[in-house]
Amino acid sequence: MKTTPVVHVGTMALLALLLVPLPVQSQGGKQVTTAQTARAIAEIERLANKAIQDASVPGLAIAVVFQDKVVYAKGFGVRDVNMRQPVGADTVFQLASVSKPIGATVVAKLVGEGKISWDSKISHLDPYFEMFDPWVTREITIRDLYAHRSGLPEHAGDLLEDLGCSRTEILHCLRYQHPGSSFRSKYAYTNFGLSEAGFAAAKAYGLEWEVASEQKLYKPLGMNSTSSRYADFVARTDKALGHVLIDGRWVQKHQRDPDAQSPAGGVSSSVNDLAKWIRLRLANGKFDGTQIVDENALAETHRPHMLTGFNPLNGLPGFYGLGWNVGYDQQGRLRLNHSGAFGLGAATYVNLVPGEQLGIVVLTNASPIGLVEGLGMIFIDTALYGKSTQDWLTLFKRVYSDPASIGIVPGPDYSKPPASPTSPLKNEAYLGTYTNHFFGDISIIEKGGGLAMVAGPQKWTFPMKPYDRDAFIYETTGENAIGTSAIRFTIGADGKASQALVEHLNEHGEGMFKRVEARR
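The structure corresponding to this sequence follows.
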């Protein structure tokens, strides 16, 4: 069974750079017209229908906002390949990281109410949260975490979530995570760092994040199909289930529970609801003439806070604001976007041009293949310039199908055995409990005559197969699964393993586990 490779969500930084617009001939500051928008809508509708006909994805939904009106909202394809119900504009999708700019809107609402600011220290709001360095713990702010400049390495904590750790357990373990860079010196995308900022902001008002999101944003906008709780998504009748591509066919196999990182990836919504949120964003916090979110607090999210890099296509810089990728085009227009992706079955994208009062959101119920970014960029280009500045669908398809093309180095290939493998020692040499501060304990047990690793608070079991002497292979699971990985043991003078290196957990050097000596 062949599964299509999934690009790690860590590629969002490079995707944001590619989404910085290419230089085009200036149109003299001419604003987008209703006719231009209509032509752009017709083009993406044509491409959306083609994507469904070609089985590029099972289902998708699109909404467009222009000049404070919802000018387009439509669904395509099916919610679930097994039941075949159609997708509509009210069908609820999981948003993955498009949750980040939505969450930033919630925090802006809380900032505007006055108890906190973007520069409130986490140590004052949530004294139980700690970073590796005590001085960083004292100084880190909501702004730092929403701008991904905390010093945490990219995606810190995500693998703990894959092992079944709870929100509380993961945030506690971040105090053991060695920094990837010095504080405020480097951009590094972290779901749990940003989530902690959201949790802490809501705590200042005595609210859980999910309640704060509902009370402060969803209810005032009438976003009745939107929630930051996974249980609410599951309970919806009209929902799009996640799909993964296996042997060239979309299969409904998994469903991602993102509650642990709700501010970063836990929102579910429909395009009809999201169009209301886009209207608020483009109207500087107003909705139907009422100021829902403070304009100044919201404006902070649109400002560049960290340089993310330079676009390989045009050399233009890209930035991260607070929950948004931020860029500027040749005409000086502010451009805001964000992608979302679950390898277990979701791909989403939002793109706004505030100066033109123009925005689009594209949602799918399939693991990412670049379609949502491609459609979104084609729409914006066509509305602004009359045509695409790039073959966006081909470009993003290449990005997602070949991670090496954007600098992602694949891990060791364990699909073939070594030429002359050495047999392992007897099982007794490896059995036992191994520990480290970050991931906790793993146990190596006997199972079915062989060995297995038991890991995580749910005691998940991973059967191991001998590979070469003291190296064993196993199949990874979860959102960040990479297929086959290895466990390598170091044998001590007593002929027993003294430590185990779990390669999949060693992305940031945290994958070494030391044997716990049995009590006598």
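The radius of gyration is 24 Å.
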